[in-house]
């Protein structure tokens, strides 16, 4: 029966579409391909001029070891760099290289474009309703 696994229901289709997007690497500003995990790591770093590895791990909800592995992959692609913290020899600051900044800016523009399109389709009231629904959905998923 359609809908038993959620495929026929809009929410089920949304979840399936998000899963599909999470599997597919993309190019951002000519940089890539980057996986969703990589670009979201770049996004978390790009919000600051530099971020402590421990803060990055906390922001992404992953272990410091997993963050370190991700940063290693992004360093190999010349997108980020690690530098020792000037006041704490045990800490590492992660920042974006120029190519990382290009990818970050392109990712921000993608989000801005998506949001502007959604706003033009839904209008201000529709956006408020949509955002309230998303917040409730997130709260439900975190239970």
TrEMBL record:
Residues 8-143 form the HTH marR-type domain. Pfam families: MarR_2 (PF12802). The keyword Transcription regulation applies. One of its GO terms (molecular function) is DNA binding. PROSITE patterns: HTH_MARR_2 (PS50995). The keyword Repeat does not apply. This is DNA-binding transcriptional regulator, MarR family. The lineage of its organism: Bacteria, Bacillati, Bacillota, Bacilli, Bacillales.
